[in-house]
Amino acid sequence: MLDSIYLGMTGLMGYSQGLKVIANNTANMNTPGFKSSTLQFGDLVYSDSTSGDAGSPGMQHGKGFGLATHGTALNFNPGELRQTGNAMDVAVDGLGMFTVQDADGNVRYTRSGQFQFNDAGLLVTRVGGLKVFGIDADGNAGIVSLDGSRASPPKPTGTVKFSGNLSSTATEQTVGSVNVYDSTGTQHTLSVKFTNGSATNPGSWTLSILDGTTAVGSGTLLFKDGKPDAASSQVKFDYTPPGQSPMTVALDFSKDVTSFASGNLSTLAASGQDGFGSGTLSNVSFDTDGFVVLTYSNGQTKKGDRLLLGRFDTADAVESVGNNLFRSTNDAHWHTGAANTEAFGGVKASTVEISNVNLSQEFSDLVIMQRGYQASSQVISTANDMIQELYSMKGKA
C-alpha cells in the first residue's frame, strides 16, 4: 500500500508537469514563431522480470515503479502566416529559419521575423535586438547592414526618349520640358526646336537643342513613310552644363514617334530619360527571395544583402533556448542557405508566422491531464484509507 502511494505520487508529479507544458503552450498561442511542445511520458522500470513455469506463458512478477517524464518534444509544424502591413515583418514559407546572433556571439535560429534596423544600421530583431545574418553580393555570410546604402548617387542622363506625332505639314515645332541630369544630380531643362526641311529634302527636320536661348547642340532627323529612318533615329550632342564636364546625350526617336500630316498640331514630347538626381533611403522591405530591397527618394531601388536561412535534418538536432530562439545540438544535421533554394522555402514580406498552438488540442489534452491527476489522487486517497483501516484493525486486536 505504501508502494501504491508512491506510484500515485509519480502520477501527480507527471501530470503536473504535463499541465505546465499545456499552460505554456496556451499562454504563447499568440507569440510569433512559437513552436508548441508535448510532454513525453513513460513507465518506470519494473523491479523484476522472470519467466513462468515450463510450458506456461511468461509472466511479469515484479511491480511497476510508476510514471516517468522524459522531457518535451517540439512541434515544428508551420503556424499561420498573417499579414501585418509592416514592411519589416517577414515570414518563411517552408522549412527555413532565420539565423541570428545573440549578445554573447552565439548563433541562434528563429521563425519570428520581426526585424528593424538599429542606429548603427544593422538589421536586428525587434525583441531582444539580436543581429540578423545575411549573405552579401559575394556570397559571404555576415550581419545585414545598411553601410554604403543609405544614399543613392546621381546618374547623368544618357538618353532622352520621345513619343508622339511630329506634324509633317508644320513648318516648325518646339518641344519644351526636356529634362536632363548632370553628374552632380542637378536637373537642367532644355528645349528642342524642329525646323521642317522637306522643301529641299523630303521628310527631313533640322534640330536645334537649346538651354534657355543658348544653342547647345544640333542634328538632323529623317522620316520615311512617316516613321524615323533607323540611321538618323538618334540625335547625339555634347552638352556642357555650367561648371561641369561635357556629357553626351542622345535624343531617341526610334520608337513611338511618327510624322504624319495633322495641320500645325504636333503631339511630340519627351516621354522619359535615364538620368536621376541623388536620393536618400526612404523605405526598406524584403522580396520573396529574401533580399533586402532599398527604395530611395529619387525613385530608384536596389537589392542589398540576402537573408541567411538555416534548416535541420532531424528535430533531435534542435533545442529551444527561450525567447522564440533555437540552437543547434548537432551541426552535422544543420544546413544554411537562402530562400527559394533547396528546401529552405520562400519569404513573404509584411507577414509574420504566428504560433502553431492548436487550442482545441490543448483543451483536449488539458482534460486528459486533469483526469489523470484526479485518478492518481484517488489512488493515494484509497491507499491511505486502506492503511488507516489496517491500523484500526491492529488496534482492535
From TrEMBL:
User: What range(s) does the Flagellar hook protein FlgE D2 domain occupy?
Assistant: 161-276
Under Gene3D superfamilies, the record lists: Flagellar hook protein FlgE (2.60.98.20)
The family database entries (Pfam families) matched by this protein are listed as: Flg_bb_rod, Flg_bbr_C, FlgE_D2, LlgE_F_G_D1
Q: Which residues form the Flagellar basal body rod protein N-terminal domain?
A: 5-35
List residues of the Flagellar basal-body/hook protein C-terminal domain: 351-391
Domain Flagellar hook protein FlgE/F/G-like D1, by residue range, is 91-128
Q: Which UniProt keywords apply?
A: Bacterial flagellum, Cell projection, Cilium, Flagellum
Q: Name the domain of life this protein comes from.
A: Bacteria
Localisation per UniProt entry: Bacterial flagellum basal body
Write out the transmembrane intervals: none
| PANTHER family assigned | FLAGELLAR HOOK PROTEIN FLGE, FLAGELLAR PROTEIN
Q: What does this protein do?
A: A flexible structure which links the flagellar filament to the drive apparatus in the basal body.
Q: Report the family membership.
A: Belongs to the flagella basal body rod proteins family.
> Mind telling me what this protein is named?
Flagellar hook protein FlgE
Q: Look up and give the organism this protein is from.
A: Ralstonia flaminis
